[in-house]
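User: I'm curious whether this sequence folds into something compact or stays loose and floppy. Could you predict its structure so I can see for myself?
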Amino acid sequence: MRKTFLIAIIALPVVVIGGYLGLKGYVAHFAERQIADLFGELKAVGVEASYGSVSYDVFEGRFELDNVSFAAPGEGTLKIGSFLAFGLEERSPSRVFAKRVELNGVAFDGPLPLAPATDASYRAPHIEVDAFEAPVELSSPDALPWQLALAFIESATAERIAIPESTTTTWTGEDTAQTQTDIVHGATTLEQLAQGRIAKASVEPSHFSVKSAEVDATGTVGRIDAASIDVAAMLILLDPDRRQSEQDFRTLYGSLTIDGYELASPSGIQQGWHRLEIKDVEIKPSAIPTEDLIAASEKARDYAIAGERLPEEDTVELLRAMADVYDGLRIGSITFSDLTSREPDGGSGTLASLKAGPLADGRLDHFTLDDFKGTDGKGAPLRIGHMALTGLRPGAVMEMAADSMDDPDGVASLSWFMQLSGLIDSVDLTGAAAPSGDKSDPLTIDRLALSFQGEADTLPTRFSASLRMSGPTSAIENDKPVFALVPDGMKRASVAVDLAGNWDEDTSKVTLAPLYIEVSDAFSLSAKMELSDVDESVFSAQPDEVMAGALQANVKLVELTVRDSGIYERKLHEAARQQNLDPASIRQLFAGFAELLLSQSVSNRPELEPAVQSFIGFIQQPMSTLALRITPRREPLPVEDVVKALQGDDPLALVDELNFAVMDPLGPPGVPTGLPPASSPSAPMPLKPTPLKPTVPKPAPLRP
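Assistant: Here's the prediction. I'll summarize afterward.
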């Protein structure tokens, strides 16, 4: 039988006190023999165990054991200066009771049980336990160490455990990569231990310091209050057999509050928050991969000791193990209030609140940030009025990060996009600002809203996106294609984007509307697309099935409206300056080339004449509008045929398969036809571009 030092000290009051009560006539002798037997068993399994004197006063009901020491390979050392029990009583043949138990000079040095990459040193000069009761015997002799500990904690009771003062020091890493944390704990009180649970716990304000090659900081943690703490659930994680049998969720913490946190360093780092509240933390032990987490943590420690970086394949294993934790974790809510931060470069920020929860089935229902204000190191503003995420799947995020490390070439593939759209249900961001390079002219986001609906790891069956933003055009690199959409001379631009789509399972139709983009004083594009015969295979979790299903869908309708709000005129003048020509001449040249290019189509299909002339008129006349409806000339028209035509040697041959007709222009979007933007009763209004001049749908034919 293997008993660690922790099991030994837990068993001491049971073995010693129980031995006395069973044989009153041989109290001292029997108690000392019990201790000798226990320590002998520990030595037989490789645990270095020793003690000093043993004494018992039968009249006072007082038992004492001093100079206790346990050392186990790889598990550290526990020392206790003295162990005393007062007011011993025999309340039943199988249980013992002490009015008070005192431990003096408690010292532990070794790795933390659930964090093998972290070494710790703990000191508690004095610990008191009131109204302590426990069984005389623990489990069977074949029980594993953590099984003994679990059996003890589930059967022992105590009214109160008090630790007036204690300190903890932890170390991670080695040499220059080492981080040391020193904590001076405030007075700790645990109340009503029974059936492995503690009814209430509190820790008075504590002080700490953190030192590493990069950080030298000190701080405080305010009073901690907790309720309904399941200590047994924590120990179950370390017992492989018991853990697998625990298929139900157990409440780890009913509630936890911390009244403030502050950290500061001479380098200028400052961090803090006013209050933290966590409610209803539950775990399902059988779903927590304890062995995988410990193994990955031990690897990280070994590489840190060697001064090396953890290899990617081991990082992937750690990410996947952490991702699995979310299947066995539930959290009712997490709330931070009044967060502050300052960096050495002068950057600073304040956040009114951060709220998250509930978390269940691997899905975080809500995550919100409210009223963030700050600056970067150069004084440029940073701001978030409100940000809300719904349906976030943190485990899936870690899995996707692991996948991207396993297969970097797979990023941006169809499979990657399918996973990406399943990570979250919606995003809503309002009142945001970020530096643009010119601190006096930031990039601002009035509104960003995204919504997805569908099965995980598939394309969404419904989606909606809306963006309203503005910023200096200098933030766009002039070698990027998008720069061509910015009118020459424009210093700042506003952008509006609305996208939405919906699959109707009953009609097997996909509608994409609105498809809208607008750049202020430049242009706007509105579109609507309908696809028919869209099979459910398009929303399969298998990328090959998705692609095959999409290619077999048929193009039903495309409606397109383009409004020139000034970009054409500006680009004409820009080209005219470069070519030393008159802008009107370049405009006529463009229109002439368009007519020449399309004249053959008109001669063969006169029904296209109105659409062609409308297109030519759009090119001829700045500040005009082009509105066309495109439908298949012969149905059905599979998407696969369109793709092949566009990839062929003569993409314009696709014109022969389509009808073009002039239509009334599409208006700016109101409420998107897909999902409504998250947390909003209505969609944001479109931008207000420069007033449009009348459309010229059919000008007189031109000749080049």
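Summary: Residues 1-27, 671-704 have pLDDT under 50 and may be disordered. The first strand starts at residue 48 and ends at 50.
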